[in-house]
Amino acid sequence: MSSIVDVKQPLRSLAQHSTAWNKTGPSELASVIGKLELLERDLVTLRARVGSDLLLLDMNTQDLIELRLGERSCSADAQVSIFSPLGARLLAARPGDILNLGGFSGGYRLLLVRVSAPAN
Record's superkingdom (predicted)? Predict the structure, then answer.
């Protein structure tokens, strides 16, 4: 049975597993720009956008993680920046998408269970 866990611990452990995930490089920044352009053109499809609340399933531990996608990281409200490696991967994702994060022993997989549209 899955339980919703405090987002700070799983995200902290994500960041500590690999130095590659602590830095945002040119390819991640280019990806973010491309995804922002896609989101601007596609206003109909339910996708993760800035301000969206996300529910993720950690496929390794079966824990559920709730977080908000934002422009800046803010640990107080479980917000992950779109400019972080994890946030860049989540941006424009749809419910049902599986995010494979390389650089970890055996890989790390997250299933995007739910996207709640940002409040206007």
Answer: Bacteria
pLDDT per residue over 51-98, tens digit each? 999 999 988 889 898 999 998 766 656 788 898 888 889 999 999 999
From 101, 104, 106, 74, select the one nearest 88 (Cα to Cα).
Answer: 101
Cα-based torsion angle of the residue sequence 84, 106, 55, 13 in order, rounded to the nearest 10 degrees = -60
Average pLDDT across the chain, whole number: 79
Q: What is the DSSP string of the chain?
A: ---EE-THHHHHHHHHH-GGGG---HHHHHHHHHHHHHHHH--SS----TT-EEEEEETTT--EEEEEEESS-BGGGTEEETTSHHHHHHTT--TT-EEEE-SSTT-EEEEEEEEEPPP-
Structural domain boundaries enclosing 60? 4-116
- Report the domain count for the chain: 1
CATH of the domain at 52: 3.10.50.30
